[in-house]
Specification:
The protein has 505 residues and is α+β, with helices and mostly antiparallel strands.
Length: 505
């Protein structure tokens, strides 16, 4: 799960004779991040001139380094041995200048002096005297430590780093810098975020609506009508009998023709006499096709026309199944809401309470009543979470992205009855599926409903939609709400205003 982390930059300041200590510092910082970053939301990043500086003209070297990264660092670790470093315009060395910059800004400086042994031939006495003078400068301020080996330095530095960043004051500062900022926002018909909650017409979240089915059906009628084929060639009786033993003509059945003609009549489409003519298309009675049925043989034009008629029949069937569902909810109005975290920290265990006038909310028990076949169709052939849900866009995520514990279940698929001619009762499964899709707790409080919803998690600077639309009966002023969460010590109270967006649809 992603976390919001406060990043601190640690400056490593040292002359050129300090080498192994740099690796020790890097390892200690890595160890700290590994142990504490996730728990406390603190991460430390090292800065050093060897890896963070870049070529730049127009200034003195140290001044450019200060501008590039030194001034922005939050703390520093300074390590000296025998060399003092190159003088700058204002200080005896770059290390001294960096230390003074940090101290004058009130920032933390970890300072260490190495007492590791060194061959006299490698010692520059003049430079070493400067190191000692620098050491004496800070001896009464209690800000430096000495060490005699890399192992001793590692223990000292990790202890000091941890003590500083894990202090109660520092942890409190970090927590004070990070907080969630939760509120309820609306989603309009164009899937844009709004500070208000638009009162909109319910449109099922599906690719194939009734109007699109009709468009497709009309297009298929036109396609089939344009496919002109000659009538079947009549063969002599003896040849026909022999041929029929192995092949039979392919024809559109009377019942299928009746369905197609009925739909055409309702749509005001004239069907030509040759609409169902399939030429000499035949069906083998001996050789099964790859799909398990009889093999269809004919010209490409004949086979294409037959396939297009079958597609028309399938589209009509799907349209007839879908139409009652869409009609049942055609006049319904709804709200689309989302939870927004505009803060700098993640939040968890979020509970939202909405107050909605009783006469305005359409609870599940008042949803349009569907017959058993329609319920079975929704359960077995549709994704109800998708139809009534609010899908992700570039502006917000869907509700499932906030779930850690499994409170929502996959769509139920009712098994068909093993007894021929028996249709199972879908009512119980349908009610359970509705409860999963509209996973709100609704409490009757006299003249109002208290609607509650839980989110497991929302990251900072994120918007997550409610699990589904909220059906409402009429326009009202607004929805007062409260939000409680793990990382918010106080209850968040607010109200989202309801605006009429029907006129724009």
């Amino acid at each position: 799960m992603p976390r919001n982390v406060v990043q601190y930059d640690l400056l490593i300041s040292c002359p050129g004779d300090i080498t192994s200590e740099i690796s020790v510092i890097e390892d200690a910082v890595l160890q700290f991040n590994t142990q504490f970053s996730d728990a406390l939301g603190i991460s430390i990043r090292t800065k050093h001139w060897r890896k963070n500086s870049y070529a730049q003209s127009g200034g003195k070297p140290q001044a450019l380094l200060n501008e590039q990264f030194v001034n922005d660092c939050d703390a520093a670790v300074a390590v000296l041995w025998t060399r003092f470093g190159t003088p700058t315009d204002e200080y005896g060395s770059g290390t001294e200048e960096e230390v003074e910059i940090m101290l004058s800004s009130g920032k933390q400086v970890f300072m260490y002096f190495s007492d590791k042994p060194l061959s006299p031939s490698q010692l520059n006495e003049e430079s070493y005297k400067k190191v000692q003078a620098f050491r004496d400068k800070y001896k009464d301020r209690g800000i430096y430590f000495t060490y005699s080996s890399d192992d001793e330095f590692e223990k000292l530095f990790f202890a000091h780093l941890s003590q500083y960043f894990l202090s109660e004051k520092r942890v409190a500062e970090v927590k004070g810098e990070r907080h969630s900022e939760l509120k309820i926002v609306g989603i309009d018909q164009s899937q844009h975020i709004s500070d208000n909650a638009p009162f909109i017409r319910f449109v099922p979240n599906t690719k194939m609506t009734r109007s699109r089915y009709l468009e497709r059906i009309r297009a298929l009628f036109d396609d089939i009508s344009a496919r002109k084929l000659e009538k079947r060639i009549e063969m002599p009786e003896k040849i026909a009998k022999c041929t029929l033993a192995f092949n039979k003509p392919v024809e559109i059945s009377e019942s299928e023709q009746k369905i197609i003609c009925s739909v055409a009549d309702q749509l005001g489409i004239n069907i030509a006499e040759d609409f169902f003519v399939l030429g000499n298309l035949s069906q083998s009675t001996m050789t099964p096709s790859i799909m398990g049925g009889a093999s269809i043989t004919g010209t490409k034009a004949e086979e294409d026309k037959y396939d297009t008629i079958q597609e028309l029949l399938e589209t009509i069937s799907k349209a007839l199944e879908w139409a009652p569902i869409e009609c049942a909810f055609a006049e319904k109005r709804c709200l689309k809401l989302a939870l927004q975290n505009g803060g700098t920290d993640v939040d968890e265990d979020i509970e939202i309470s909405l107050t909605i006038p009783k006469g305005s909310l359409l609870p599940i028990c008042e949803f349009p009543k569907l017959n058993n076949d329609e319920m079975g169709y929704l359960l077995n052939d549709c994704n109800m979470s998708e139809i009534f849900g609010i899908c992700s866009t570039s502006m917000y995520s869907d509700y499932d992205s906030s779930i850690v514990t499994n409170r929502r279940f996959s769509p139920r698929v009712s098994m068909p009855s093993i007894f021929p001619g028996h249709t199972p009762d879908y009512s119980n499964d349908f009610e359970s599926e509705l409860a999963d899709v509209f996973c709100y707790s609704c409490f009757d409080e006299g003249e109002k409903y208290i609607v509650k919803l839980k989110y497991d998690y929302i990251k900072h600077n994120a918007i997550i939609a409610f699990p589904s639309v909220i059906f409402v009966k009429d326009l009202f002023d607004g929805i007062p709400y409260t939000i409680t969460s793990k990382n918010s010590p106080e209850i968040v109270s607010g109200e989202i205003k309801i605006t009429d967006d029907i006129q724009n649809q």
